[in-house]
Amino acid sequence: MRFVHPYRSTLTRLACLSAAIVLPAVAGSTPAPQDSCAPLADQAAAATGLSDADAKAGLAQAESLITRAAAAGCPLAGLRAQAARGDNLLTLGRYQEAEDVYQQLSKTLDPGGPSILLAGVLRRLGAAYYFTGELDRALQQYRASIGVAQKIGDRMDVAKAQGDIGALYVQIGWLDEARQAQEEALAGYQEVQWKPGIAGTANNMSQVDGGMGDRALASGDDAAARTHYAAMYHAARQAFQEFQDLHNTRGIAVASANVGIAAAALGHYHEAIGWHRRAPALRRRIADAHGQGTSLATTAGALRGRARAPPAGYSAATG
């Protein structure tokens, strides 16, 4: 079973960051007063948010902000805009470009010491490695992000990296460790009351249960497999509802795909196809290159299953 990795935006809360970063001097320029740079910094955070809604627009906005921040003498806003550029490149599937952005940012930020921005950049660099299959390097960056976040007491970024580690563990089959990582991430999100993270963890937990269902099925324990697939279904449905309430397009798409995977695993192919057909349109809307490919593959699998299955008049929710 191929699972969707739900990566999330990084830099939506950076109001107190400037004091934590020592910015490099820009030749021939005088930094502008921080108050005058605040609108550009806010726009950079908005550009990051577009990676979950419209990555093409987010990329254009970030690139414009990089130029404007340099002209205005706002280096911190420029760094945030660079990070936003990387986030949107990642959504668009331009992984090598995103990796280059994050590597350069980490080199620029590291001399200034731990910061929220550095923790986020390291985690997103891990995501770039994840999507190119370099899982060892991804894990290294996720752990480095946790180290930075812990030094500054940033519980949310610790939780984000723990969730990403859990998703990576699913890919390599470390399912018990994956569940533990997701439980730790959930505790962090609940502590800071961050609803997108709580919803995202429901998606991630659904993937863990899916992997456990696959493992049980391979060992011949059909009853345990069905229990895990049913848990996957309900967790993904929970995530779907929570992301709908948050109007988060990416989260809705990922949850839809996971519900479809679980429904198909339970043998409810007609229902699965309905969920899978929902996901690609949402992913096209935000230009999620990786997600579109995954959705096509899972839809094809459900269609093959339906061709072999009798007409279904029931739902996985009650089956």
What does this protein structure show overall?
The structure is a single chain. With 319 residues, this protein is an all-alpha fold. Helices cover 75% and strands 0% of the residues. The longest helix is centred in the last third of the chain and has 25 residues, at 222-246. The two termini are 21 Å apart. 53% of the residues are buried.
Largest sheet: none
**Uncertain stretches of 5 or more adjacent residues:** 1-29, 302-319
- Average pLDDT confidence is 83
Number of helices: 13
CATH topology heading of the domain at 194-319: Serine Threonine Protein Phosphatase 5, Tetratricopeptide repeat
Share of helix, binned: over 70%
Helix/strand order, N-terminal first: HHHHHHHHHHHHH
Short structural summary:
The protein is mostly helical. Helix content is 75%, strand content 0%.
